[in-house]
Amino acid sequence: MDGDGHRIRCVPSPALLLANRSSDEPEGLADYRARGGYDGLAIAQEKGPAWLRDQVAASGLRGRGGAAFPTIRKWQLAADAAGTEKYIVANGGEHEPGSNKDRYLVEHHPHAVVEGLALAGLATGATKGYLYLIEDMRGPRASAEMALGEANEAGLLPFPIAIHCGPTTYVAGEETAALNAIEGEPAKPRKKPPFPGEAGLFGKPTTVNNTETLAHVAWIARNSGAAFAAIGTEDSKGTLLFTLGDQVEKPGVYELPFGATYRELIEGCGGGLKHGRTVRAILPAMSAAFLDGAHLDVPIAYETLQPLGTSPGCGGVRIVDETTDVVALTLEIAEFFMKEQCGKCPPCRMETNQFVHILKAVQAGKGPGYDAKMSKLATFSRKKGDCSLIEMAAAPVISALSCFADDFAKAAGPAPKDS
């Protein structure tokens, strides 16, 4: 308990992905197999693709890249598609500031991702797989190459798996942008439909899953979908990886079950904020909406955070304390999305550029009216791009206007007097 009687927990119950190890080196094949690694693949090869899909359906697993799309729906789309040539892609194209969980997972536990990739390919009828990373991921790439080499030498892989590294841009992590990058095209999102499960890589049915999602699949195949569904909450199953930055005493990547709280994450895992500071608000991920600090003890789950206007996102947590300049922080986020939008869709270019322009006017003390302008802009632009970056860019900015209304009003100052 802390001084206010809140329950603090820093050890997940149970740990599914981040196995306790004495070494910080990448987990090799021998160590992974010693804890049951590749047993799930052997079971699935014996029982068949339909059995594996049933297990994932029973697990309630959702994508861990931020969108939380039900995994089985992606799998079933590709499995039902006609054709004998299909692909599976593990998406590790992580480029969101504050999130480090995919890099960490691939670098330290590469075999869990490789086994999950093989399983997803088996479930969807894939004939080739790709592990998609970003060009600056030297450590994760080296670990993945080691794991693939070991798995190939042991004869464990049911189909060829290659590594492809995309450009170091945010939008290159979007699933269809990743497919374009693998094809040698500019890493820009495609218009959907068709969805990748219908026509993806090289026009063939393709399943794209986040690397954390696939590591969970390896656990599910070994332990059953029912065992996974027993962890978490009614609508949010299993565990989630979180990244805590330098604002806390013990920054790093942590695993907690859904139903844990941000207080448990920040105080129990992260050791609390440095210098004895207090949490004023939380940004669960850069592409999510701010959560007021009064909600530190709300269980982390899709069904509990959605009514509060936000989501767990990819778990890259940023913390607002009493020293944070929230207008500057909001501008920093807006500038990131302005820089990282690919330029393909005019509404996205307009929204991201105008957010920055209006926020700079707030910083310059040019008076009220900024909130109505940005809200109108976000409403007009909603769902008008080929990917969801429009919504991602709007969520933190628009939520900041209400969460920190007094800060913005103070920065903007009074209306200019008529000359």
Structure in words:
- This protein is an alpha/beta fold.
- It has 3 domains: 198 residues, Rossmann fold (3-Layer(aba) Sandwich), CATH 3.40.50.11540; 83 residues, Ubiquitin-like (UB roll) (Roll), CATH 3.10.20.600; 87 residues, de novo design (two linked rop proteins), CATH 1.20.1440.230.
- Helix content is 43%, strand content 11%.
- The chain has 17 helices and 9 strands.
- The strands form 2 sheets. It has a 5-stranded mixed sheet, covered by helices on one side. The protein has a 4-stranded parallel sheet with strand order 3-2-1-4, sandwiched between helices.
- Helix 5 packs across helix 6.
- The longest helix is centred in the last third of the chain and has 18 residues.
- The protein is globular and about 80 Å long.
State the CATH class of the largest domain: Alpha Beta
- Mind telling me the C-alpha Rg? 22 Å
Number of domains: 3
Q: CATH H-level name of the largest domain... which superfamily?
A: NADH-ubiquinone oxidoreductase 51kDa subunit
Adjacency order of strands in the biggest sheet: 6-5-9-7-8
Q: Mean pLDDT score, rounded?
A: 94
Gap from first CA to last CA: 60 Å
CATH architecture of the largest domain: 3-Layer(aba) Sandwich
Per DSSP, the total helix count is: 17
- Beta-strand portion reads 5-15%
Helix content: 40-55%
Q: The biggest beta sheet, please?
A: 5 strands, mixed
Remind me, CATH topology of the largest domain? Rossmann fold
* Strand and helix order: HHHHEHHEHEHEHHEEHEEHEHHHHH
